[in-house]
Structures are given as structure tokens and as C-alpha cells.
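pasting PPM-type phosphatase domain-containing protein for the record, 784 residues
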Amino acid sequence: MMEETISAVKTDKQLVTRVGKVLSHDKAKGGFSTCLMYEPDEEAQKAHGSLYFVVDIGSPSPLTPDIAYNLIDIVKEEYYSDLELSASESFENALKAANEELAAIAKEGEKDWIGKLNVIVAAVADREIHLVQRGTAEAHLLRGNNMINLSKGMYTPGESYRPEETLLNLIEGELEVNDKLIVSTSELFYYISIEKLRRMMEGQTPAQAAKRLASVLEQEDEIHRTSVMVVEFSTPELLAQEEETEPAENWVGEPQEEAPRRAKKLSFFKGGTTTTLPVEDKTKTVAEALESIPQEQISEPPRPTVVESRFTPTLPREELVIDETNEPSSHPSKVMRPSLGQIKPSINISDYQKKIKLNSNQLRNAGTILWKILKVAGLIILTGVDAVFTIVSNAVKNIKKRPGGDRILLGVVVVLIIAIVGSTLAFASGQSNRIGSKKAITALADAQQKRDAAQAALIYEDTAKARELLTEAYLAAESATHNKRTQTEATVLLVELQKQIDNVSNVTRFVDVQPVADFGTLQSQLASSGNASAQVKLGNLIVLGGNVYTIDPDNNKVYKYKASSGEVAIINSLVSTDKKFKLGAVLSETDLMFYTTPPQVYSLNLDSNSMAVKGLDAGSWNNADSIIPYTDRLYFLDSANNQIWKYKAIPEGYTQIAPYFENNVGTDLSGALDFGIEGNVFVLLLNNVIKKFSGGGEVQFGINGLPGVYPAVGNITSLYISNDTPLYLLDATNHRVLAFDTEGTYVAQYIYDNIDNPTDMTVDQAGGFIYLSAGTKVYRLPLK
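structre below
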């Protein structure tokens, strides 16, 4: 590709422009991005000025480049088609034509670009600038030391719109000599803050700034589709003073192969160019296009609302004036801006020094008055100190006259010292977390910038990057809450960021969860059976067919919660003088199994409600801490013997007991709390230690990836995993259930606010619920 050199582009008698560009392309990822400037060759068209484009489409469709270039061509053709119109009128007509073409594209079935189009189109004629924006593309104006975000507030995350309403967000203003316009894809701000971009622009020509920017971006690991165009507006005399030798175009990585340009419009455009159609006919074509678009693919967006946005915190924008009618319109909504020329330079103190002139007599008189005020204030302070001293002295004398007066005085002194030290420490502690206003404002701005960059990352479906940026934004906003000046705004931002982080981190929050069952209501039935002091106590939870079963180890009862009716009942009992229920599990679609102490295994057939002893080899599983039927085997966790015992089902019953760990050398399961099986075996130990075993051997395992804004793992008390579920961990300390994949990578979390001290957890993946027990109550949390 030949290297471009900078040329001065005339915009009117006073202003000329020069341009620098940065482009990138990742062949491994789909989509298309470009930026370009168009300057007409014909003298008659030059009075209409030049056009500037940044177009980014995050769609893998092979037609994406055609859609981008077609959009550019339509705007160019319509803008210069009627030179009798003003530049503003021509620009609005060009946008209307572009909207109609986009509607025609959607009508013919090419819709993947909708919601993935990020574009800036600007027209500069004389000193006027007309600019339209859609999606996450950004436009900034550098004037002096002020960087103005022209596109701030124009993008709404998750926005939906009709194809013929694509290019509506229009702003206008006036340019000044030495203004720099920076238009770019939002991906730029993954890597460069707005403040850093401002510094890189200062004192640099557009080509020099673009080269510096490209050098910085080259250091990043991944650059996807970053397109940046820097345009400087100056005078011929100023540009003649410095020679530009840097290339206008700078590629990050390998240059993108130029997309093939079609001689005509895309094949599915009917009737030639839209610019030849009368306005009435074009409107009709748009209406027909809308009728043919399936509603499930392009939803009806809400009508635009009047919002207030700002160029920067120091330069308020006027209200967006949007013409709302009953019928859809493809005319762009013009957003009237204050003239860009209204931006003032910083205050110069010398201007005020000239206005304030004091002679020597005035200074002497002021000094005399000030001295008198200080003397009066000093006398008042001395009088107050003397009065306090007199009062304290008299009080001390009176206390000493009393019996034990010295001890009383000593106690008073100790109390005063404690009070002084305590208040000092409290004050210091309160101030230690405070930060300066300048640092707080910077932190708040950084948080807002990272939040916006995260929204851009979501457009590119880069959830990991979005989560990283939102986490950084949250930490910055949190620090800004420690300054009174930024506390309110930062607190509001924190709430917004928390919701966004929850969304990208698969976090579901539950407020005021109500129990689905309370087995405590069976208390009266226990009392009527002859034991008036009996109390309901729940064992581990068992879920089968949407119903919840549990055992009562103190009363040898089997309880059931029937999901269809919401009723709880005692469905069976173990009649024994020496055995007590300890554990329960699902054995089959119709049977439950129970383990007792002393060791014995029973099965309960739910169809006949009959309980029978299972004929198992006595073995060494008399210390079972948990049981799991898995495929055709029974597994017993025996932490006391550092072993997991297993039986295999055969027609006659079960085989003899066998150890899971053949050698059992170096295996330490002491203090094991729970275990689960999904092919691999996971064992939960004390202090949040989770061990993973495969084929009887330990496999390295650890949980990771929990987003940093959430609390670190507290105290894990229960574990659940099966063939069709991730690894669920009950973190009772932090009122949540965490989910990880079998490699230990974070998947999701479910946070509840009012379930205190849950004792057991199980998951019904097919039914879509997590079940928790606390006291005599059972709660369930929807997985989706």
C-alpha cells in the first residue's frame, strides 16, 4: 500500500485542514472499520466543504464492507447533489437518503448490522460543522487546553432503533483556528484515556499525533477495529510555517486489504440510487420496508425523549430538540448547540491585577485596622483561658478536700486522656480515607470513562474486557465517594456500576426470599405421637421430581414437601431403638436411600412408601460423612479413614466394598465436610480447601476468576456437583452460592439477603432451582 502524505485541504477562505489517521484490523475477528475524508474536486462543490467519516460495523457478514462503503457513497452523492441548498440542508437530505438505504438493506433481509453500527459523519463548510453520530463512535474537539466530548450522552447502552432512524443524532457548531477534531471508534478508549489523548494532541500536527498514537497502540496485546481520524483547522499562513513530512495514514499491525468496491450499489437495492426518487416516493419505500421486517428481529423502539447533555462539565449543552410526530420519520433530529466559539480560555490573573490598584496610604490604614483587630481577639482569648483556668483550679481544690480526692482526680485525668486519644484516633481514621478534591474528580472522571469503554466492549461482545473495565471503574468511583465534592455523584455511579457488573458477571440477587416450606409446622404432630418435648430438626436435603425430602435425625422421621400443593408431611418413620437417621440420598427415580448410625443402609420406595434394609457388606464405612449414588455405584465419604468407599450394583445386590483410593498413601481427607461426583470426585475440606480426584489420583485444582469487586470467598460449608451442573459452593458468610466450572473457573453467583445460617444446599438443575435449608425452613433460588 502506498504511503499517503499530508496535503492541505481548503475549507474556506480562512481555514484549511490537514489530517492524520490511525487504522487497525484483526483478520481473526469479523467486522469492518474505516475512516476517511472526502474533498470534492469540482470548484462548484468546494463551497459545500468536505466530509469526514468513521464507520465501524461489528457484524461478521461478508456484506459488511459493502454496507459501510454504500453508506459513505450515499451521503457523498446526496450532499453534493443540490448546491443551491445550504450545507445544513444538504447534510440533512444526505442523512435522510442514507437512512432510507439502510431501511432497504434491512427490508431485503440483511439485518445483522442493526445495533452493531457505530458511525460518525461530519460535514465542514466555511466555519460551520454539522455532525451526526450513532452507536459507540465518539467525536471530540480540542480547543486550546479544553477537550470537548461532542458525542457525550448520545449513546444509550442497549439502544434499539429502526433502520430508517439510524442517523438522527445531529449537532452543529462553529470552528475556530487551531481547533482539532478527533473522530474515532470507541475501542480507542480501551487503551487511551481522554486526558492522555488530549496531551498527545497538544503541540502536534495531526500526522505527528496519529503516529504517536499508533506507536502507543502497537504496545497493546490485542487491537481489534480501532479507527481514528485527527483533523486540524488552521490558516494557510500558519500551515506554511511548518513542513509536514509524516505520513497521514498509520496502521497498527498489518494493513487491511482494501475491501472490493462495487461499481453499483448492493444487488438488492431496487430502482437505482435513492437520490433520484422524489421525497414522497422514498418515504413510501421506507414504510414498505418496515412492514416487511419481522417484528421479533427489529423491535419497536421508544420514541426519542428530550434529554439534557453536555460537551464537558464546564460547557453545558442545550436541550436536544427532537421533533416528535405520530408517523415514523427518517429526518435527522437536529441538536442545536451553542457556538463552539463560546468556549473561553482559562482566567488570567493579570486581568484582575490591573483592576485592583492600592496605594501606600490605603495599605497602611488597612494594616493598622488589622493590628487592632488582632489585639482585641488576643485579649478575648486570654480572658477566656484565664476564666477556664480559674474554674478548673477551684474544682481541683474542692475535689482534694473530699475523702479519696486524689484517686478521683486521677480517674478524671485518665478519662480525659482516653477521651482525647479516642477522639483523635476517630478523627484520624475518618480522615485517612478522605482524598483531595482534585484526586476525587480525576477518579470520578476515570470511572465514567471506563464505564463508557465497557459499554463499547459489550458492543464487540468482549464480556471479559467489559468486566475488567467495569471493575476498574467501580474501584475508581468508590475512591471518589471519600470526598464531599464528589460523594453524591460517585455514590449514584456506584449503584449503576454494580448493576452493570452484576450483569456481565452472571450475578443474580434475591431480596427478601420467602421459604417454600416450613417443616416446623409438623411440631404438633411430633408432640401428639407421644413425645411432647420433640423438636423438628432437618438433615440434608433431597430433591426428586420437584419435591423436597429430608430426614429428622433426632426423631427418625422422613419429611416431604410436595411442590404441587405446597404441603409438608411426615411420610415415614424408622422404628428402631438403637439406630438414628444420619444421611439421605436419591437412589433411583422411585427410591430414596438412608444411612444410619450405627451403620446400616435402608431404601424407601416412594410408590409403596415401604422401607427395607439394603444388604451391603458391612465393610469399614461406619464413619460415613456423606453418601452419593452415582450411576450403578454407591459412594461413602469416610474422612476418619481418609477414604471413599464404593459398591457396585449387581443383579444379586451389591459387590463387596472397595476403596476408591487403592493405595491410600498421602491422601488426607481429615475434616472433610462434603463431596460431589460428576466423573471426577470433588471433596470439600476445612478452610475452603477443595480437592479434585480422577481415577483415584489427585488432580491440581483451585477456584479462580471471582470478579474483584465482590467479597473474597468466606466460609464454604456445602458443595454440590453432578453430571449436568457446574460446581456449586455455599458461601454462608457472604450470603451467596458460587458456581464454578470443573476446572475451577468462575461461572456465576446467587446472592440472597435474608437466609441466615443455612445448613445444607442441593441443586435441581432440571427444575431450575437451588435449595437451601436453615432451621426448619427450606428456601429455593431460581437459577434463571
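The radius of gyration is 37 Å.
The domain at 9-342 is CATH 3.60.40.10 (Phosphatase 2c; domain 1).
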